[in-house]
Amino acid sequence: MQTRVLTGITTTGTPHLGNYVGAVRPAIAASRRADVDAFFFMADYHALIKSDDPARIERSRLEIAATWLAAGLDPNKVTFYKQSDIPEIPELTWLLTCVTAKGLLNRAHAYKAAVDKNTETGEDPDAGITAGLYMYPVLMAADILAFDAKQVPVGRDQIQHIEMARDIGQRFNHIYGREFFVLPEAVIEEQVATLPGLDGRKMSKSYDNTIPLFAGGAKHLRETVMRIVTDSRTPGEPKDPDSSSLFTIFHAFASDAESAAFRRALEEGIGWGEAKQVLYERIEADVAPMRERYESLIARPAAIEEILREGARKARAIAAPKLAELRDAIGLRAMSSVTMHAGSARLPNKSIKSPRFASFRDTDGSFRFRLFSSEGDELLLSKSFKDPKAAGAVQKQMKTLGGTAATLHVLPRSLVLELDGEPVASTPDYVDESARDEALSYLREALDMLAAQEKEAS
Predict the structure, then answer these.
(1) Contact call for residues 209 and 203 (beta carbons, < 8 A)
(2) What's the rounded Cα separation, in Å, for the pair 347 and 344?
(3) Rounded to whole angstroms, what are the CA distances from 321 to 84, 87, 165, 326, 328?
(4) Band of pLDDT at residue 440, cut at 50, 70 and 90
(5) Residues contacting 446, CB < 8 A, separation 6+
(6) Residue 358 dihedral angles phi and psi, to the nearest 5°
(7) CA 416 to the chain's CA centroid
(8) Concatenated DSSP letters for 42-101?
(9) How far apart are CA 433 and CA 426, in angstroms?
(10) Would you say 269 and 238 are in contact if contact means Cβ atoms under 8 Å apart?
């Protein structure tokens, strides 16, 4: 049985060696596994949040699509498409927006970081912050939920967005009474290589220290490699491979035997200039065949466009029926299908909204859960548990407890829930004591509602 794995590729900038080693190469290798149903999309809607330069967006889309294809992505074996070619994605974004709590979006790391930066400089908290940045997590949730992706490979800085996609999908499922969405899991690749740049820091466009993958050709690649910063040790003096950016980059491309030989050469005193030449030749051996394919592809943008459109057709074959099902579920069905009774439309019976638990597995492998209000605001976050049964037992206790019997310790700006004398969950930090006291009343009410439902169910 195949597992659907979805990867988004932001279309800003020009690909460099760090992108290839850390993202492109491992993702393409994973896509070739028989048990993987791989979806790759060009996140060009997301790019609009970061850039308002149309020429840059247009060029970046072409360069990045050509890079993935040149590196070996097989469009016949994966679904490869542009986000902007799937009209169901912005439609789903709006449907999800209508069930997403503002409080959830307020906690998004990127938005909070932008607000904090403004506050530190004395600006209005929302100065320069677009609704696009604020709504980024909902668009990302739509990217994932539209295709029922089970796994989403991400860096650690993106884990929160996957958790938010789960919360949003789960809330939609709860409101409309059916499991419309598969809830995604974040996949963290712990062994993904991170290459140092020209100055020894992580290779990043933000630091302007990148080594281009294809741009400028072989001559530019060699010139850039020759600019890598090294220490002052002269030819003949032993070099330390483990503290050398040259060795780290070389090892990312070379076999174990080649790496061992390069290590010996450094320890035996090879000059930095000669070592850089060896590094360049090793990189070029891998990059040259890909560059040839890249240059052929980039000269035929219409061919790339057709590949992406065919991918979009495959993707829409999944997304369009999904959206039709969702439209019907929320009442946006054809008017001819409305059943009339006694001169008026028959309204669906909607279950009373209630607090809900959302369980998840943390990055360290432990299990936790959140308690959300009917509006989607986070009321409690549990401590870590070694296994899901222990977390489930605590949820069971909370469901039978009731607000008046709950042991809630009041801290200056938060609350802590205890069971049998042991802290098991806490609230978010509130801005002041007034907000904390309001949360205390609301939390007791939510626990009473859970207890009443549990009693009725039993």
Answers:
(1) yes
(2) 9
(3) 18, 13, 20, 9, 11
(4) confident
(5) 355, 371, 373, 379, 403
(6) -130, 115
(7) 30
(8) EEHHHHHHH---HHHHHHHHHHHHHHHHHTT--TTTSEEEEGGG-THHHHHHHHHHTTS-
(9) 15
(10) yes
In contact, 167 and 359? CB cutoff 8 Å? no
Rounded to the nearest 10°, the torsion over CA 172, 178, 182, 184 is: 40
**37 secondary structure, DSSP code:** E
- pLDDT, position 192: 59
Q: How far is CA 99 from CA 26, 174, 203, in A?
A: 35, 10, 39
Ramachandran bin of 193, using left for φ above 0, alpha for ψ from -120 to 50, beta for the remaining angles? beta
Q: State residue 221's pLDDT score.
A: 95
Query: 241 and 247 in contact (C-beta within 8 Å)?
Result: yes
What are the tokens at 123?
Answer: 């600006």
Cα dist. 430→200, 380, 433, 435, 437 in Å? 41, 12, 7, 6, 9
User: In the prediction, which pLDDT does 66 show?
Assistant: 96
In this predicted structure, the answer to whether residue 337 has a pLDDT above a threshold of 70 is: no
* Coil, helix or strand at residue 371: strand
The tens digit of pLDDT for each residue in 72-112 reads 999 999 999 999 999 999 999 999 999 999 999 999 999 99
Measured CA to CA, the distance from residue 408 to residue 362 in angstroms comes to 25
- β-pair type (340-341, 367-372): unpaired
pLDDT at 51: 84
What residues contact residue 47 under an 8 Å CB cut-off, 6+ apart? Answer: 10, 11, 12, 57, 60, 61
**Is the pLDDT reported for residue 244 higher than 80?**
yes
Cβ distance 317 to 323 under 8 Å?
no
Report which of 322, 298, 295, 300 is spatially closest to residue 182, judged by C-alpha positions.
322
**pLDDT tens per residue, range 128-154:** 999 999 999 999 999 999 999 999 988
Q: Is the pLDDT of residue 388 over 60?
A: yes
Asked whether residue 114 carries a pLDDT value surpassing 90, the answer given is yes
Query: What value, to the nearest 5°, has the Cα angle with vertex 247 and ends 242 and 251?
Result: 110
How far is residue 301's CA from residue 307's CA, in Å, rounded to a whole number? Answer: 10
Reported confidence tier of residue 435, pLDDT bands at 50, 70, 90: confident
CA distances from 35 to 29, 32, 143, 152, 187 (A): 12, 9, 22, 15, 15
